[in-house]
Design goal:
Strand 8 and strand 9 form a beta hairpin. Strands 1, 2, 3, 4, 7, 10, 11, 12, 13, 14 and 15 form an eleven-stranded mixed sheet that branches. Strands 16-19-18-17 form a four-stranded antiparallel sheet, with no helix packed on it. It has a two-stranded antiparallel ribbon with strand order 5-6. The chain is mainly beta. It has helices at about 15-25, 95-100, 125-130, 170-180; strands spanning about 5-10, 30, 40-50, 65-70, 75, 85, 105-110, 120, 120-125, 140-155, 155-165, 185-195, 195-200, 205, 215-220, 240-245, 250-255, 260-265, 270-275. Helices cover about 15% and strands about 40% of the residues. The chain is elongated and about 65 Å long.
């Protein structure tokens, strides 16, 4: 059994609990395709069976978020779960909107100390909880869109954000506040889309049962944005590189009517790269 279940994770539930529930209901190994903090809600695609092997192929997908930032205060975790420290002014909506373009495109971003980033084999959040002194290196991330939607409270603003994998919304809150000469933290986060998986087509976590979960399994090949490798020599299924006229790149590979996995074409030769059946 392979495929995906597009789960809408509620606030207060960890991503591993969602995966564990799907695994229990289906009786097969599963893995999520991009974690969500317990504080956040939203789309959490779960790979079922061998589909979980495709994590690396989803790393570059765009993600969409609805977020709210509070200004004039910050926390050690950069979200509302941390200890709040007041300080700093509250910018106007006009100031916030004017600062956003500087955060669109490819930017350098330092992950939050409370994150799963590894430091010498230890997770950042473990080191931060122990009070360790450490630094996380900045990395390049891509923000495609960063739009101020509305002011939701005297010190809080709502945003719509489209970004690539590896972008920390909490870091955007921190850095936007710093650019405005104040402090800030993320007070709310909802992932509304992760690649092809959207909130509109998701199933609420609390509605999943042993009786209905198979109705929500999405076929693996239907969510992969690659063309089909046509007319490949059958030797490709035995690890042999076969000649093809197809352009270089990734392709969906079928054996008869059955989806077999992924093939990669390079310099006129196609090879099976990921077996999923």
């Amino acid at each position: 059994m392979t495929g995906f279940v597009n789960v809408f994770k509620p606030e207060g539930v960890g991503s591993t609990k969602v995966v564990g529930r799907v695994k229990y209901l289906l009786g097969t190994p599963c893995g999520h395709m991009g974690t969500l903090d317990p504080l956040a809600c939203g789309v959490l695609p779960v790979g079922v069976g061998n589909a979980a092997r495709l994590f690396d192929y989803f790393l570059k997908k765009e993600k969409r978020y609805s977020a709210r930032f509070v200004f004039g205060a910050t926390t050690d975790t950069l979200d509302r779960e941390g200890e709040i420290r007041r300080g700093g002014r509250i910018p106007s909506a006009q100031e916030v909107a004017a600062a956003l373009p500087a955060f669109v495109g490819e930017i350098l971003q330092t992950p939050p100390r409370y994150s799963a980033v590894s430091v010498n084999g230890r997770r950042g959040y473990d080191l931060a909880r122990r009070g360790a002194d450490f630094d996380l290196p900045a990395k390049r991330v891509t923000v495609s869109s960063f739009v101020l939607r509305e002011q939701t409270a005297p010190d809080e603003f709502a945003f719509d954000i489209v970004c690539g994998g590896g972008t920390y919304i909490r870091s955007l809150a921190r850095d936007l506040a710093a650019a405005l000469g104040t402090a800030g933290y993320m007070s709310y986060l909802c992932r509304t889309a992760s690649g092809i998986f959207s909130a509109e087509t998701s199933v609420p976590f609390e509605e999943l049962t042993a009786e209905n979960i198979r109705d929500y399994i999405i076929p693996t090949d239907s969510v992969l944005p690659y063309p089909v490798l046509e007319g490949a020599d059958a030797r490709i299924f035995h690890g042999v590189g076969v000649e093809t006229d197809c352009a270089d790149g990734l392709y969906k590979l079928y054996r008869g009517e059955e989806f077999y996995g992924l093939a990669r074409v390079a310099d006129g030769v196609a090879r099976a790269e990921k077996k999923l059946c």
